[in-house]
């Protein structure tokens, strides 16, 4: 009798678990929404600080490129760290332009709904170098790093597009390392290619300085990325990546995740589209003031990675192979 009761309970538990799992999958499927490619009206324009009240329209990524390189700098409450990053970046690019007079570039600072003076910090460089070289895209509300990078890319004029973090953790001169690999994998003049800066070579030192729990979370996150989404890339999260214009259009038009885990979905989409992807070690330094909360952010990203895989498997998210940006 006891054995029979236990068997009944086991069947009941299995039934409840199956129903709960099915309900969860249905919720995931129904809660899946298409990529948000919209802009608030104010996000369609930038201003020239030398002409107070000016309202100039951003170009579209579908326009013919007119510059060699666009650098996108996603920024949220970065009034303190952004000036140093812009100084290093523009000095490098200005020096290259002196050596190569035909080289052209722009830097687009994307203020992701900051509560401080991030926009003003960016505009100081617009004033210094002119809006042909430095522009500021100010969001109406916070979207997240992935959303900031997407609209920055979609407002760019460059043949090649680099996004780089506002904290200047990666030495900007390492752009040359990315460009070298880019040339090797981008076989066609109008082809697609992505090169990722990588901190994987620093992992051993990082593990030595982390607690056992944080090391466990880090390895757990890397395993989830490898198992569910992206293989062959050792560091998916480094904020220093170079893309061809076509790759930016195709990949970011399909991107759904706009916060910390966006890099993983970006590379997942790129691999599905068979975009050539390279990876190269870069010089990287820990900078104070990170917006990530180590344990919470990793757990949140782990959840997002699981949802990325589930939503694509269930058909809630689908890759449009003829993507268009607005």
From TrEMBL:
GO terms for cellular component: endoplasmic reticulum membrane. Keywords: Endoplasmic reticulum, Glycosyltransferase, Membrane, Signal-anchor, Transferase, Transmembrane, Transmembrane helix. GO terms for biological process: protein N-linked glycosylation. This is Dolichyl-phosphate beta-glucosyltransferase. InterPro entries: DPG_synthase, Glyco_trans_2-like, Nucleotide-diphossugar_trans. Pathway: Protein modification; protein glycosylation. It is a single-pass membrane protein. Belongs to the glycosyltransferase 2 family. It comes from Branchiostoma belcheri.
């Amino acid at each position: 009798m006891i054995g029979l009761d236990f068997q009944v309970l086991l069947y009941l538990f299995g039934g409840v678990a199956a129903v709960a799992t099915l309900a969860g999958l249905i919720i995931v499927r129904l809660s899946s929404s298409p990529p948000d490619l919209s802009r608030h009206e104010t996000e369609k324009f930038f201003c020239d600080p030398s002409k107070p009240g000016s309202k100039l329209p951003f170009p579209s990524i579908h326009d013919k490129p007119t510059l060699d390189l666009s650098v996108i700098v996603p920024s949220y409450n970065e009034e303190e760290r952004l000036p140093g990053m812009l100084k290093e970046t523009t000095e490098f690019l200005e020096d290259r332009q002196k050596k190569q007079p035909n080289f052209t570039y722009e830097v687009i600072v994307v203020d992701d709904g900051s509560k401080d003076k991030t926009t003003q910090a960016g505009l100081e460089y617009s004033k210094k170098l002119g809006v042909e070289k430095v522009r500021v895209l100010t969001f109406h509300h916070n979207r997240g790093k992935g959303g900031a990078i997407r609209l920055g890319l979609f407002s760019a004029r460059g043949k090649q597009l680099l996004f780089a973090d506002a904290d200047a953790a990666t030495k900007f001169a390492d752009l040359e390392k990315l460009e070298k690999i880019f040339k090797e994998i981008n076989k066609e003049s109008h082809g697609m290619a992505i090169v990722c800066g990588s901190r994987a070579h620093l992992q051993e030192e990082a593990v030595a300085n982390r607690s056992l729990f944080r090391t466990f979370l880090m390895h757990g996150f890397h395993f989830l990325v490898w198992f569910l989404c992206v293989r062959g890339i050792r560091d998916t999260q480094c904020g220093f990546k170079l893309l061809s214009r076509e790759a930016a259009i195709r990949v970011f038009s399909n991107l759904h995740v706009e916060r910390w885990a966006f890099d993983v979905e970006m590379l997942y989409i790129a691999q599905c589209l068979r975009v050539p992807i390279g990876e190269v070690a870069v010089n990287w330094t820990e900078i104070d003031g990170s917006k990530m909360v180590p344990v919470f952010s990793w757990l949140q990203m782990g959840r997002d990675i699981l949802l990325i895989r589930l939503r694509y498997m269930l058909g809630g998210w689908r890759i449009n192979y003829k993507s268009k940006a607005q």
